[in-house]
Design goal:
CATH superfamily of the largest domain: NAD(P)-binding Rossmann-like Domain
Structural class: alpha/beta
Distance between the termini: 19 Å
Shape: elongated
Strand order of the largest sheet: 10-9-8-11-12-13-14
Number of domains: 2
Order of helices and strands: EEEHHEHEHEHEHHEHEHEHEHEHEEH
CATH topology of the largest domain: Rossmann fold
Strand content: 15-25%
CATH class of the largest domain: Alpha Beta
CATH architecture of the largest domain: 3-Layer(aba) Sandwich
Length: about 350
């Protein structure tokens, strides 16, 4: 793995000269990620010429700036940093990503050159885990089901309550598919509550799972045993369609499936059939495809709650990711070990 130390930084009689940086991301991402204070801190760390950010890497003006750049700060909307881009950026030693996954813009050429790459995925995992915890508690109380039926049955007696599955927030079982950064945070957040927590992940360390207060089990056992199943696996060729028709059929009657990971992990047609039958519920923050076509049956099923990919950092939450990134840049400039570096060799296992 590449060193975190800045090499060949010019010096002056007053000490090291700040390295030159360039912020590359969409206009919206820049507006969300950087307020005045955070932008001021970035300028204290690195030298950035105006304009403060760019959205592309192809124009002559941007290529001219790249020639002198030591590090890039990237975010949503960053184009791919290709071998051609790298050839025009001979000083580039590090890319600090304010988002989660780096697969969309870090090419193999970056890894081959030994460019240091970091990610703010740990900061993005926090709101996803919080969203998941809130959903688990509300679904465990059957709050959304009660709310919908109360609204529909407003003029009737209380007999409709008997059709709602029992609440499971005491001694219920929550299954986490994937012991990822988010999965581990969800397990930690569940610790104060009275749940039995199961984890299924082929690469998880059983001791780490046990230390988190959970139990590592095969996927089929998790599906058959859990009252609520929450997906936290990465999107890989091996995980597409992971929760297929046969595995959905293993879920208990009244079970709830929560997906804040990737829509491709679930067989959408099979999920529609299961939810249409009323046998299970689904809370989906992600879908396949995304966004959903207007005609998708998921919009109209009573047993499906849809949100438009909001579990991750939004609004002011994104600035937690900026702060993490700036902390990482500061460590890098001091030559200290990085806390959020990305190992290119691990990308086949992570998002």
């Amino acid at each position: 793995m590449a060193s975190s130390r800045v090499d060949n930084v010019p010096t002056s009689p007053r000490g090291p000269v700040r390295p030159r940086g360039l912020v590359v991301m969409s206009d919206q991402a820049f507006a969300d990620l950087f307020d005045t204070a955070l932008l001021g801190r970035l300028r204290e760390l690195v030298s950035i010429d105006p304009p403060e950010h760019v959205t592309e890497l192809a124009s002559a003006s941007v290529r001219e700036r790249l020639a002198d750049v030591d590090l890039l700060v990237t975010g949503w909307g960053t184009p791919v940093i290709t071998a051609e881009v790298l050839a025009g950026a001979p000083r580039l030693r590090a890319v600090f990503h304010t988002g989660g996954s780096v697969k969309g813009h870090i090419s193999q050429a970056c890894w081959d050159r030994g460019v240091v790459v970091t990610s703010a995925r740990d900061a993005n995992a926090i709101p996803v885990a919080e969203f998941t915890l809130g959903t688990i508690l509300l679904e465990g109380k059957r709050a959304r089901t009660y709310a919908a039926r109360y609204r529909d049955q407003r003029d009737s007696d209380d007999s409709w309550r008997d059709s709602v599955p029992p609440a499971i927030n005491y001694r219920g079982t929550v299954g986490l598919i994937g012991f990822s950064r988010v999965g581990r945070r969800v397990a930690a957040l569940l610790a104060p509550f009275d749940f039995d927590v199961l984890v299924s992940d082929p690469v998880a360390d059983e001791r780490e799972v046990r230390a988190a207060g959970a139990r590592l089990v095969p996927l089929e056992e998790l599906l058959a045993s859990s009252d609520i199943v929450s997906l936290h696996a990465p999107e890989l060729s091996s995980t597409r369609g992971l929760v297929d028709r046969a595995r959905l059929a293993m879920l208990k009657d009244g079970a709830v499936l929560i997906n804040t990971a990737r829509g491709s992990l679930v067989d959408t047609d099979a999920l529609i059939d299961e939810c249409r039958s009323g046998r299970i519920r689904a809370v989906l923050d992600v879908t396949e495809p995304e966004p959903l076509p207007a005609a998708s049956a998921l919009y109209d099923l009573a047993g499906v709650e849809l949100t438009p990919h909001i579990a991750g950092a939004m609004g002011r939450e994104t600035q937690r990711m900026t702060s993490l990134t700036l902390d990482e840049i500061a460590r890098h400039l001091r030559g200290e070990p990085l806390e959020h570096s990305v190992d290119g060799r691990a990308l086949k296992y992570i998002a």
